Amino acid sequence: MAGFKTHLKVALGVSGVLSIISLGTGIANPTQISLFFMLGAIGGILPDIDSDSSIPLKFLSFTVGLLLAFLVILAKVESYSIIELIISWVILYSIFHYSLLYGFRKFTNHRGMIHSIPAGLIFMLITVLILHNLFGFSEFKSWLGGTFIFFGFLSHLILDEIYSVDIKGKKLKKSFGTALKLYQPKDARSTLIIYSLVGVLIYNSPSIKTFQYIFTSDKFYMRITNNLLPNGLWFGDIQESVKSSFNKINGVK
């Protein structure tokens, strides 16, 4: 299977392409794209959180632990002193951090249902809900952020499947089919839990109508077509700058 660095590089590449398309079509501004770009990169390492010793698991438990602890102490800002808030934050972070580590290590197996397409949908939907309900993003921008997570996640699964093909030996490795899957053949309970969670998250998600409308409209694809190639000179600003510098050197006005 591909290593951590390879997965991260590919996810960054996929996220970069999506970011450029989003900027080029005007569906998001640079500030939002900076966040979405990072979400795509995070999505690319998420499937490996089911590995007990993985960097993504430690990163996720650390980040989510800090975030959850911070959200909890917000309710006590008016009644606690600064020192009390800091102590509460550290204690809550420790509880959340180690609980997440224990939970994933106890209840997940590497290449289990976390390594699947529906799991990618779960992380996408969780991202949509967080962006919309906690950070006040519009329905469309929330779904756009979730899409970055999903495509980053999907790039990881596809890459693992590619690495499970032994080209030189002209055979498939035992790991083939364990990443890019829709269900776990030998674990019906995990499959049921994953799909049930997908259903619950979809039910509680904001409307996707605007997102669907934009990405199925002719205008969006016309923007891509119109902005895909330069209307004039390729890298015109660079050519003009070089020309201007050359003229100055040769005394041409």
Attribute tags:
mainly alpha, 2 domains, two-stranded antiparallel sheet, 68% helix
Q: Sketch the major β-sheet.
A: 2 strands, antiparallel
Q: How many DSSP E strands?
A: 2
**How many distinct folded domains?**
2
Task: Please state the overall shape, judged from the principal axes of the Cα atoms.
Answer: globular
The end-to-end distance, rounded to whole angstroms, is 60 Å
The succession of helices and strands, N to C, reads HHHHHHEEHHHH
Q: Mean of the pLDDT scores?
A: 84
Note poorly predicted spans.
none
What structural class is derived from the secondary structure elements? mainly alpha
Number of helices: 10
Percent of residues in helices? 55-70%
Short summary:
The chain has 253 residues and is mainly α. It contains 10 helices and 2 strands, in the order H-H-H-H-H-H-E-E-H-H-H-H.
What does this structure look like?
- The protein is 68% helix and 2% strand.
- The protein is an all-alpha fold and 253 residues long.
- The protein folds into two domains: 1-50 and 110-228, no CATH class; 52-109, no CATH class.
- Helix 1 runs antiparallel to helix 2 (30-43), helix 1 (4-24) packs antiparallel against helix 6 (139-163) and helix 5 (117-133) runs antiparallel to helix 6.
- It is globular.
- 26% of the residues are buried.
- The model has no long low-confidence stretch (mean pLDDT 84).
